[in-house]
Amino acid sequence: MTKSSLKRSIHLMNQKAGKALKEAVTETIRDHYRTGDPLAIWRNGRVEWVRAEKLLPLKELKKRAKRSTRRN
After folding, report:
1. What predicted TM-score, i.e. pTM, was given to this entire model?
2. Separation between Cα atoms, residue 72 and residue 68, nearest integer Å
C-alpha cells in the first residue's frame, strides 16, 4: 500500500466514523425526545442533565433524520 492510498483509506475511515457517530447521537437524542428523559452531557468540567429539546430542536432532529435515511 502506498503512502497516498493509506492516507486516502484513513480519510475514508474517518468520514465513515464521523457519520456513524453523528447518526448514533441523533438516534440517542430522538430516543430521549420520545421518552422525555434528560441526557447527560459534559460541560465546564462537570456532568449536566439537559432536556433533548435544549440540545437539538425538533425541527433540526427531523431534518437530520431525513438526511440519514436519504443516504442509506
Report:
1. 0.67
2. 7
Whether 2 is covered by a domain: the verdict is no
Torsion of CA 21, 22, 24, 30, to 10 degrees: 160
13: containing domain: 9-71
61 DSSP β-pair partners: none
Structure confidence at residue 24 (pLDDT): 92
What DSSP state is assigned to residue 45?
T
Total count of domains within the chain: 1
64, 33 contact by CB (below 8 A): no
CB-based contact 56:62 (threshold 8 Å): no
Q: How far out from the chain centre does Cα 41 lie?
A: 13
User: Of 64, 49, 19, 54, which is closest to residue 33 (Cα–Cα)?
Assistant: 54
